[in-house]
Amino acid sequence: ETERTFVMVKPDGVQRGLIGKIISRFEERGLKLVGAKFIQIDQDLAEDHYGEHEDKPFFDDLVEFITADPVMAMVWEGQDATRQVRSMVGETDPAESPPGSIRGDFGLDLGRNVIHASDHEDPGANEREIDLFFDEDELVEWERVD
Ligand code: CMP
């Protein structure tokens, strides 16, 4: 099923100049970019986005980290896109992510893991996150011809 999924290069990835490499991986894989914005996340958006981690001991650090510098927020479309992207991203912990995955190749540690992608085991997470970051008219309909 063709679907859209939310992906974000986190502040550590932006600071280390990894935006282009990460975009290239999704492009080369055949996914279609339908939305992108380079923004600095404010406190409210950070707390909404990471709401499920509110009670975790690392929550305050997580919000501080994600708001400290800009992020590249994107929506990618494709067949089974959420699961496809998750497999390209790797595990939450870069140390447990295989070489060839984005976190396995670029991630430094649990916090500085370069990229966020919607959880494919949380139904609706992709739509929820897309809605949080994008208005409908910011998503572009176009045909990719390979
Ligand atoms: P992500 O899956 O994008 O969303 C939640 C984030 O919380 C996760 O990436 C990690 O970067 C971060 N995280 C998870 N566990 C820890 C932890 N124990 N310490 C610091 N950050 C964490």
From TrEMBL:
| Gene symbol of the encoding locus | ndk
EC number(s) from the headed UniProt entry = 2.7.4.6
- What coarse category fits the chief subcellular location reported for this protein? cytoplasm
Source organism superkingdom: Archaea
Q: Where is the active site?
A: 116 (pros-phosphohistidine intermediate)
Q: What class of enzyme is it?
A: transferase
Q: What is this protein called?
A: Nucleoside diphosphate kinase
Q: List the subcellular locations.
A: Cytoplasm
Query: What is the species listed in this Swiss-Prot or TrEMBL entry?
Result: Halovenus carboxidivorans
Q: Which HAMAP family match?
A: NDP_kinase
Query: Which InterPro entries does the annotation name?
Result: NDK-like_dom, NDK-like_dom_sf, Nucleoside_diP_kinase
Family, per entry: Belongs to the NDK family.
What would be one Gene Ontology cellular-component term for the protein? Answer: cytoplasm
What exactly does this protein do? Major role in the synthesis of nucleoside triphosphates other than ATP. The ATP gamma phosphate is transferred to the NDP beta phosphate via a ping-pong mechanism, using a phosphorylated active-site intermediate.
Q: Which cofactor does it need?
A: Mg(2+)
Swiss-Prot/TrEMBL catalytic activity: a ribonucleoside 5'-diphosphate + ATP = a ribonucleoside 5'-triphosphate + ADP; a 2'-deoxyribonucleoside 5'-diphosphate + ATP = a 2'-deoxyribonucleoside 5'-triphosphate + ADP
UniProt binding sites for ATP: 10, 58, 86, 92, 103, 113
**Pfam families documented for this protein:** NDK
Q: What is the lineage of its organism?
A: Archaea, Methanobacteriati, Methanobacteriota, Stenosarchaea group, Halobacteria
Q: Where is the Nucleoside diphosphate kinase-like domain?
A: 2-141
Q: Enumerate the Gene Ontology biological process terms.
A: CTP biosynthetic process; GTP biosynthetic process; UTP biosynthetic process
In Gene Ontology terms, what is one molecular function of this protein? metal ion binding
